[in-house]
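Students often ask why inverse folding is considered easier than folding. One informal answer: many sequences map to the same fold, so there is more than one right answer. In these notes we will look at a single instance of the problem. The structure comes first.
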C-alpha cells in the first residue's frame, strides 16, 4: 500500500512499515530533508510539463478555456450587478485572476491524472476537510499569493481533484473542519503611504486631463521634460480597497459556478464548479464599494489615454478605473517594464496584454501584432553608471521563488526540480571560480521571506559559508560601479538593464526553463558566440577565470560590442531623443 503525500502537515505522513510514502511531482515539502522513509517521484520525468510539446499544446487549450470562461463570467457578472458592460470591461478587471486560475488548476489536474496512471491500485491519500469559505480571496493578488502559495490551498485543490476523478482512494483525517492556514498576508509586503503624502496628492492639480499615467518605470534620473509630462498626476493606491469586509454571497457564487452545456470536458466542468471558492470578493461582494471608492478619487473624467507598465496586472483599484474608461472610449497604452517580453517561448501574459491594450510600447522588439510599437528602455532614461579601475568582483543576483508550481513564464524556474537545477547551476559556477574572485564577489538577493521561503538563499549560504551575501531592493545595475561584472541567470529584466547601460554582463541560462522563441534565437546566438551567453556554468566560470583581469578589454572589444549593439537595439534599446516618444503621445 502506498500513501500519497499532499501536504506538509505531519498528519498526512504514514509511519506504518506497510505503507510507502510517495511524493507528488512538482511539489516541495519540508520533510524531504528529514530522515522519514519515502519514495521521491519528484523529478522531471514524472512531471507532466517536463514534456515541452505537451506544455505548448496545453497552453493553447488553456487559452481556449480562458475565452469560454470569460464569455460565461462576464454575462453572469452583468446580471448580478445589474450592468450591461461589454466583455472588454470585465476582462480588464479579471484577466490576471482568470488566466492564472485556469493555469494553476489545469497543472494540478494533469499532475493527478499522471498519478492515476502510475498508481492505479493500492494507493491512499490522507485528507483534511476545510471551512471552504475561508479560501475565498479578497482580490487578485490575495488569490495569486496568499492562496496559491499556501500549503493548505494546494492540499485542498489536489484532494478536490482526486475525489472528483475518483480513481485514488482518500481517507479523512479530521471530523471538524479546519480553518485554512495562511502562510502570509501579501498586503504586509507593501508599505502604505503616510497621511501627508496622500493629502499632498489629493490637492495636486492635474496639468493634463487628457492623459492618466501611473507606474511606467520612470526614476528621479529621468529628464525633467519627460518626467513632468508623465508624472505630475494623482496615483491610485494599491491598498485603496483593503479596508473592505469579507461578506460572502452564497447564491451569487453558486450562480457563477453553475455549469453550462458548452463546458464539455471533465476538467472544464470541474473548473467552473470551483469558481465559487476562488473568485475574489472585489469583483462580486465588494464590487459596488470598489466602484464608489474610485468615483471619490479626483481622477480625470475623460482621459484620452491611460498608460502604465505594471498596474494593469497588480493594482486592483487602478484596473477599476482603467476598465471604466477604456469602455467609455479611452485608449490603453502599455509600456514594457522588463521581463521576458519578445524573447521567451512561452510567455502567456504577453499575449493577453496585447489583447487588452490599444498600443504596447516595447523596448525595441517588433511583432506581427500591429499593436506593438518598438520603443526604448524607459527605466534607464538619464541613468549613467561608470566603472573604474577600483571595481572588482562579480555581482550575482539570485531570487527565491514559490516552491509550489506557479505561473508559466519562460525565463525562470517554476517548480521544485527546476529550482533545484537553478541552484545546481549557481553552485557549479561559483565553486569553479578562483578563490580571489570568490572573495571579491557577492550574491545579491531580495528579502522576500514573507512570500517565499528562502530556499535558494539558505542552500547557497550553507554551501558557501565564506561568501558575501547582501539584500537590496535596488536594481542590480546600480551596484555595477562597485562590481566589475554582472552575472545573470534568468531571462529577465536585470541583464536587459545592464546591457542597455553597456555594463559588463554575462548570462548563464538553463535551457530547460530559459526557452527562447524562434524569431529571437539568432540574437541569442550572437551573444553566445561573443562569450556573453553560456549554457554551461562550468564553461562560464572557466571563461571568467581566464579573463578576470581583462574584463573591460573583453567587453569593449569589437566582437562583443557588435553583438551587444545588435541585441540591445532589438530588446533593450537606448535613445538620444526621448522627446520623440512624447510626440507620439501628444499626437
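Output (designed amino acids):
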Amino acid at each position: 500500500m502506498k500513501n500519497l503525500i499532499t501536504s506538509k502537515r505531519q498528519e498526512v505522513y504514514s509511519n506504518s512499515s506497510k505503507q510507502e510514502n510517495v511524493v507528488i511531482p512538482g511539489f516541495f515539502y519540508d520533510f524531504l530533508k528529514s530522515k522519514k522513509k519515502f519514495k521521491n517521484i519528484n523529478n522531471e520525468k514524472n512531471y507532466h510539463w517536463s514534456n515541452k510539446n505537451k506544455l505548448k499544446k496545453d497552453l493553447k487549450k488553456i487559452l481556449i478555456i480562458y475565452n469560454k470562461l470569460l464569455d460565461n463570467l462576464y454575462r453572469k457578472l452583468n446580471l448580478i450587478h445589474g450592468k450591461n458592460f461589454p466583455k472588454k470591461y470585465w476582462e480588464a478587471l479579471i484577466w490576471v485572476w482568470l488566466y492564472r486560475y485556469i493555469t494553476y488548476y489545469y497543472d494540478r489536474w494533469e499532475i493527478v491524472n499522471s498519478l492515476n496512471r502510475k498508481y492505479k491500485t493500492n494507493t491512499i491519500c490522507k485528507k483534511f476537510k476545510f471551512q471552504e469559505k475561508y479560501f475565498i480571496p479578497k482580490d487578485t493578488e490575495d488569490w495569486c499569493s496568499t492562496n496559491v502559495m499556501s500549503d493548505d490551498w494546494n492540499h485542498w485543490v489536489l484532494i478536490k481533484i482526486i475525489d472528483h476523478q475518483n480513481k485514488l482512494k482518500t481517507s479523512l483525517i479530521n471530523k471538524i473542519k479546519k480553518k485554512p492556514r495562511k502562510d502570509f498576508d501579501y498586503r504586509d509586503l507593501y508599505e502604505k503611504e503616510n497621511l501627508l503624502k496622500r493629502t499632498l496628492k489629493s490637492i495636486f492639480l492635474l496639468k493634463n486631463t487628457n492623459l492618466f499615467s501611473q507606474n511606467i518605470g520612470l526614476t528621479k534620473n529621468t529628464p525633467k521634460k519627460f518626467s513632468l509630462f508623465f508624472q505630475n498626476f494623482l496615483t491610485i493606491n494599491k491598498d485603496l480597497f483593503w479596508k473592505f469586509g469579507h461578506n460572502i454571497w452564497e447564491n451569487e457564487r453558486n450562480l457563477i459556478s453553475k455549469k453550462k452545456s458548452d463546458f464539455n470536458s471533465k476538467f472544464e466542468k470541474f473548473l467552473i464548479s470551483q469558481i465559487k471558492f476562488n473568485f475574489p470578493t472585489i469583483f462580486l461582494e465588494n464590487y459596488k464599494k470598489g466602484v464608489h471608492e474610485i468615483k471619490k478619487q479626483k481622477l480625470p473624467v475623460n482621459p484620452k489615454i491611460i498608460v502604465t507598465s505594471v498596474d494593469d496586472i497588480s493594482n486592483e483599484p487602478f484596473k477599476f478605473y482603467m476598465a471604466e474608461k477604456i469602455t467609455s472610449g479611452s485608449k490603453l497604452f502599455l509600456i514594457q517594464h522588463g521581463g521576458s517580453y519578445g524573447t521567451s517561448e512561452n510567455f502567456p501574459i504577453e499575449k493577453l496584454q496585447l489583447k487588452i491594450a490599444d498600443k504596447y510600447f516595447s523596448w525595441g522588439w517588433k511583432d506581427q501584432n500591429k499593436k506593438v510599437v518598438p520603443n526604448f528602455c524607459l527605466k534607464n532614461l538619464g541613468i549613467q553608471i561608470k566603472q573604474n579601475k577600483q571595481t572588482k568582483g562579480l555581482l550575482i543576483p539570485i531570487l527565491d521563488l514559490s516552491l509550489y508550481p506557479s505561473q508559466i513564464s519562460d525565463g525562470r524556474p517554476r517548480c521544485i526540480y527546476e529550482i533545484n537545477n537553478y541552484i545546481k547551476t549557481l553552485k557549479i559556477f561559483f565553486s569553479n571560480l578562483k578563490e580571489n574572485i570568490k572573495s571579491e564577489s557577492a550574491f545579491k538577493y531580495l528579502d522576500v521571506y514573507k512570500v517565499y521561503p528562502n530556499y535558494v538563499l539558505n542552500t547557497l549560504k550553507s554551501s558557501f559559508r565564506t561568501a558575501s551575501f547582501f539584500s537590496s531592493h535596488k536594481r542590480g545595475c546600480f551596484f555595477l560601479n562597485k562590481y566589475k561584472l554582472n552575472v545573470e541567470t534568468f531571462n529577465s529584466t536585470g541583464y536587459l538593464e545592464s546591457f542597455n547601460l553597456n555594463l559588463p554582463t554575462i548570462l548563464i541560462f538553463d535551457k530547460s526553463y530559459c526557452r527562447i522563441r524562434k524569431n529571437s534565437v539568432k540574437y541569442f546566438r550572437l551573444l553566445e558566440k561573443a562569450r556573453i551567453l553560456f549554457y554551461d556554468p562550468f564553461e562560464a566560470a572557466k571563461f571568467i577565470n581566464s579573463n578576470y583581469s581583462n574584463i573591460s578589454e573583453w567587453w569593449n572589444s569589437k566582437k562583443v560590442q557588435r553583438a551587444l549593439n545588435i541585441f540591445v537595439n532589438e530588446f533593450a534599446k537606448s535613445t538620444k531623443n526621448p522627446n520623440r516618444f512624447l510626440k507620439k503621445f501628444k499626437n
